[in-house]
Amino acid sequence: MSLRWQEIVVIPEHEEPVACECCGEEAWRVEGRLVHREVPVGRFTVRWRPGVPEHPARHVLYLGEWGARRGDDPPRVAAADYWGGAAHGFYLVDDPGPLLRALAPWRPRFLRRADLVGTAAGQRVFAMLDAIHVKDGRLRELRDWAPVAEE
User: Fold this and answer.
1) Counting beta carbons within 10 angstroms of the beta carbon of residue 149, is it exposed (0 to 12), middle (13 to 18) or buried (19 or more)?
2) pLDDT band for position 85 (50/70/90)?
3) Which of 7, 63, 91, 103 is found 20 to 30 A from 111 (Cα to Cα)?
């Protein structure tokens, strides 16, 4: 089924100050849920360093069943960094490193760039990322990282 970002409901949940996983500096982290036509389609976290648009904002999507393991359909996880400035936009992450170690008890399948670009799964992931970016009011700062077009 096709998924459009405009149809995804973003439900903000927890937020907290954290240490950045890549550099150890002070960062902010938010969590939430994604629902499409009253059906849960995923969860997400976003971590960024406030006031530092040169540092990417890591978005992690948690897809599939994360409760009791059911059947042969493992939960899936995808990650993308949002960069500000002239190269602003989402870039899929291929090196999950510490993320998969932290999620080891759930044994998720990490969706890499090659799994997503040009696929229906990729369209769904980017629709979710766009919905989070546009609809979660806590990410206003990240939206401001995009350059303003000069006329």
Assistant:
1) exposed
2) confident
3) 7
